[in-house]
Amino acid sequence: MICPGCGKEVKKNAGFCPNCGRSLKRTDDNKDSKKIIGIVATILAVLVLISVTVLIVKNISAGRYNRLIDKGNNYLEEMQYDDGIAAFDEAIRIDPKRPDAYEGKVNIYIAKGDNESALAVINDGFAAIEGDEYVAQFTEFSTKVYEQYADELVSEGNYQEALEVLEKGNNLMPGQLSNKIADVMYDASEQQKAEEVKETTSDEENALEATEEASSEEDDSQHDVDESVDVTETYFFSIDITNITQKSNGTYDVECNTSRYKKVIIPYEEFERINVGDTVTYDTGYSGIREIKCYFIEDGIKYFSEYSEDYSSLDEMIDSGDDYYFMSPDNKDYYGDIILYFGSNIAIRGYTQEEYYVEDGVETINIDGNCLVRVYYDESGELVGSLRDITFDQFYQEYTSGLTSLLSYVVNYNESYEITSLISYAWWG
């Protein structure tokens, strides 16, 4: 063998090199190093094998999952609902953390008309789905399902059930259905008002029909001149809020400066009966009774004046500078009644309203937490050009958090003087 020290050839089993004296005995270090390297290599090989195996299994599972989703959707299109549910259930067993199978199951139950089972699947999905992207996807999908179910209930007149469904969904997805809840509450309030008006006017309508039948052969030219037309005075008021106090019974005491008004509206049947020469009489509230006379009817619009003038034409009446009033079949209140407007030769100044009562100092009114509030500021407190619907509870939270300062509001209320809605205006406050 060769001496590693001097490179001279020495005997095979020599203990020392006779030329340089170097020890030629072998140690076990090299053997141990080789053993360690071998072990590490074996471990790495096993790990690589395991990773490859897991990747293969994962790809196989993902492929099977996607095939089951496609199969379930095909069953849905073919209305084979039981087979579709079975396919989606199998996909959920393979990967319960993804939303696609839950969404497919929900769609099947909706197609079957079983909305309650669809909502139950949504609950199961939120309990199992993981990952921000998956949760966001499922939240968007579920929000639409709840809104569509609520719309279906509202179309059937089931406002209370629709609100209960939306409240459950909003608890599951906080804040996602707040605007929809406000919309349904507002629709329910308007529907209630319409029903009340319908009940109170049914007798009058029957009497009017009888009158019309009795006079059906009467020529329009024989219509009585100076017939007085009944009007309805609908009250509302504006408030300038100064302070809000939350109460334990779910209501709020709102301190505000208050101005009350009324607007003049005429039932549509009365509007149709008005001819040239007829009069409309209403109480202004603070300046007494006002009587206006119909002078012209053009394009279905009826024009009035309170001055005893012989106008030769509508243009002459408008150009005279006198205030005039008009009613158009296009200008209707919530219930289809006609609103009385007024104008001058300068501009139309809006519908006729009279300020009949003004509170001196601060008044306190009570508002329910579910009352609808329509505001002109967005979620960041910036004034915007479109309305946003929230409940008074949410409005109070935004106020106490400093998101918005208090503005002025028009307040609508029903015949029982219960507040039904507040509407803010961007140019107030």
TrEMBL record:
<feature type="compositionally biased region" description="Basic and acidic residues">
    <location>
        <begin position="190"/>
        <end position="201"/>
    </location>
</feature>
<feature type="domain" description="Zinc-ribbon">
    <location>
        <begin position="3"/>
        <end position="24"/>
    </location>
</feature>
<keyword id="KW-0812">Transmembrane</keyword>
<protein>
    <submittedName>
        <fullName>TPR repeat-containing protein</fullName>
    </submittedName>
</protein>
<keyword id="KW-0472">Membrane</keyword>
<feature type="transmembrane region" description="Helical">
    <location>
        <begin position="36"/>
        <end position="57"/>
    </location>
</feature>
<dbReference type="InterPro" id="IPR019734">
    <property type="entry name" value="TPR_rpt"/>
</dbReference>
<feature type="compositionally biased region" description="Acidic residues">
    <location>
        <begin position="202"/>
        <end position="221"/>
    </location>
</feature>
<dbReference type="InterPro" id="IPR011990">
    <property type="entry name" value="TPR-like_helical_dom_sf"/>
</dbReference>
<dbReference type="Pfam" id="PF13240">
    <property type="entry name" value="Zn_Ribbon_1"/>
</dbReference>
<keyword id="KW-0802">TPR repeat</keyword>
<feature type="repeat" description="TPR">
    <location>
        <begin position="65"/>
        <end position="98"/>
    </location>
</feature>
<dbReference type="Pfam" id="PF14559">
    <property type="entry name" value="TPR_19"/>
</dbReference>
<feature type="repeat" description="TPR">
    <location>
        <begin position="143"/>
        <end position="176"/>
    </location>
</feature>
<keyword id="KW-1133">Transmembrane helix</keyword>
<dbReference type="InterPro" id="IPR026870">
    <property type="entry name" value="Zinc_ribbon_dom"/>
</dbReference>
<feature type="region of interest" description="Disordered">
    <location>
        <begin position="190"/>
        <end position="226"/>
    </location>
</feature>
